[in-house]
Amino acid sequence: MALFAGVPYAPGNLTAVATSTTGRGGGGGAESVSRTLLTAGTAAALSLSADAAQLAAGDRNALAYVSVQVVDAQGVPVPAARVRVRFSVLHGGGAELAAVGSGDPSDTSSFFSGERVTWRGRALAVLRPLRAGAKGNVTLVAQADGLPPASVTVELV
Predict the structure, then answer these.
(1) Which of 9, 87, 130, 133 sits a CA distance of 20 to 30 A from 38?
(2) Going along 10-130, which residue ranges are E strands?
(3) Which domains does the chain have, with CATH numbers?
């Protein structure tokens, strides 16, 4: 059943509201739930987010997964963006870029190449401490043509 089949496309926000007059558990009263879908503009920036703020220095099993997302000027994710992202690690010798990926099942490029084309507007980079790594900050920088560079910092403790 296609509830929204007749809704014409137009950029902007689409809000759907569902209202129940019986309430939860049939106790009466009205409840409503709403969901808003946002239309993304053109790609304007990269947004990076690490799953760990700190890693154990020298522990090769400690990994930080850095999510990369292409966003528009308002920070709305751009799911159709296919952008080649180049990664580099700025540090004092304490960590390395272990791998990159995007989840694209048709992408057969190396996970160790240091760059990846986003799929559905997303990519992933993995940071790993070196064996004899020093303590301090490690910064992952992501760059893409036409977009400002973005970075995230992870502390080696």
Answers:
(1) 87
(2) 13-20, 31-38, 45-50, 54-55, 64-71, 84-90, 95-101, 115-117, 122-129
(3) 45-156 (2.60.40.10)
